[in-house]
Design brief:
The structure is a single chain. The protein has a domain of 135 residues: Rossmann fold (3-Layer(aba) Sandwich), CATH 3.40.50. The protein is 41% helix and 19% strand. The radius of gyration is 19 Å and the shape is globular. It is built from eight helices and nine strands. A hairpin with a 2-residue loop joins strand 5 and strand 6. By secondary structure, the protein is an alpha/beta fold. Helix 5 packs antiparallel against helix 6. The structure holds guanosine-5'-triphosphate and magnesium ion. The site of guanosine-5'-triphosphate has 17 residues, from helix 1, strand 5, strand 6 and helix 4.
Length: 218
């Protein structure tokens, strides 16, 4: 979809920032993984975090694992697009990879919470597409949280308590999907992505394209 501006068949466009947020256990990470695996024009924004690496996680792929001192240095150097404390840890989005991707016409997917989303809405409202994922029911949310069992029971209990709080922020998002079925939800995210990519303001190569059309050049 994004190719050099001298390719007559494609319109140059600016990339978009696709945010997926949800309470813990609603299915956001699974949906994100599927979108990333099947769409070559969107990449994950890899956050920095002070939380310990979990078994199976890869540094640089899932997160940049840093200590508190490094995290604060990054804040002071202005290296974050947004940052927030989530549960007991700090999380932040490194700015440079996102800015480079957007100007190259590549989309970026963010798995971040409502606090980070609010900050992006302040700093980059035109590039932002916000999707909130809701679980189909409380029972299903509980079931999903306990079945993943990656964290201690204490952490799981904390997340459960926070879920209702997090869900109250659905109102700050552009699109809301109730995740009844992962495949269906992935399809819905894909259709949002397709539509958002076609927004006129993102197709920055349109004026040139139409100019050439009107000149009969192509
Ligand atoms: N604001 C902000 N939030 C982030 C960032 N990176 C991750 N998060 C959020 O921090 C929360 C905890 O993420 P993790 O520690 O990876 O734990 P998890 O098991 O994936 O948690 P859930 O995705 O909530 O189920 C999630 O809601 C993420 O969306 C970031 O850079 N900024
Ligand atoms: Mg997650």
């Amino acid at each position: 979809m994004t190719v050099s501006s001298n390719d007559p068949f494609h319109i140059k466009r600016r990339g978009l920032m696709l945010v997926l947020s949800s309470p813990s256990g609603a299915g956001k990470s699974t949906i994100a993984r599927e979108i990333l695996a099947t769409d070559p024009n969107i990449t994950l924004s890899v956050s920095a975090t002070t939380r310990p690496k979990r078994p199976g996680e890869v540094a640089g792929r899932d997160y940049h694992f840093v200590d508190k001192t490094d995290f604060n240095l990054m804040i002071n150097r202005g290296e974050f697009l947004e940052h927030a404390k989530v549960f007991d840890n700090y999380y932040g989005t490194p700015k440079k990879p996102v800015m480079d991707a957007l100007s190259d016409g590549h989309d970026v997917l963010f798995d971040i919470d409502w606090q980070g989303t609010q900050q992006l809405a302040e700093s980059a409202p035109d590039d932002l597409v916000r999707i909130f994922i809701l679980p189909p029911s409380t029972q299903e949310l509980e079931r999903r949280l306990y079945s993943r069992a990656q964290d201690s029971a204490e952490v799981v209990a904390k997340r459960m308590a926070k879920a209702s709080d997090e869900m109250s922020h659905y109102f700050e998002y552009d699109w809301v999907i109730v995740n009844h079925d992962i495949n269906e939800s992935v399809q819905l995210v894909r259709s949002i992505l397709t539509s958002e990519r076609l927004k006129r303001r993102r197709q920055v190569g349109l004026s040139d394209f139409v100019k050439r059309l009107r000149e009969g050049a192509d």
